[in-house]
Amino acid sequence: MTVLTRIKYVAIIAVSLFFLIVGINTLIGCFRLKNPVEFVMYLFSSSLLILVSISGLIFVFFRIFPPKQKSEINNDKNS
Fold first, then answer.
1. Which of 5, 26, 29, 78 has its CA 20 to 30 A from that of 49?
2. Domain coverage including residue 45
3. Cβ of 66: how many Cβ atoms within 10 Å?
4. Is residue 51 a part of any domain in this protein?
5. What is the pLDDT of residues 11-54, one digit of tens each?
6. Based on the structure, what is the number of domains in the chain?
7. DSSP labels, 24-76
């Protein structure tokens, strides 16, 4: 893995964690609203922020730790 790739992954993690925190704060704050229309708008926007942030973290996780290929899995038949 090159240095530029590591910098890219660190940047994605940082941005994802920032927006995850913003999304959680928005989700908590939307329960204090009195207008039901505003509540629904804030609820859906915070859910979208959280979803996008988690997908960014999952992207980096699977790039750093790729799943094993079929040939790398130990087969008991060959032993």
1. 5
2. 34-63
3. 8
4. yes
5. 999 999 999 999 999 999 999 999 999 999 999 999 999 999 99
6. 1
7. HHHHHHHTT---HHHHHHHHHHHHHHHHHHHHHHHHHHHHHSPPPPGGGS--S
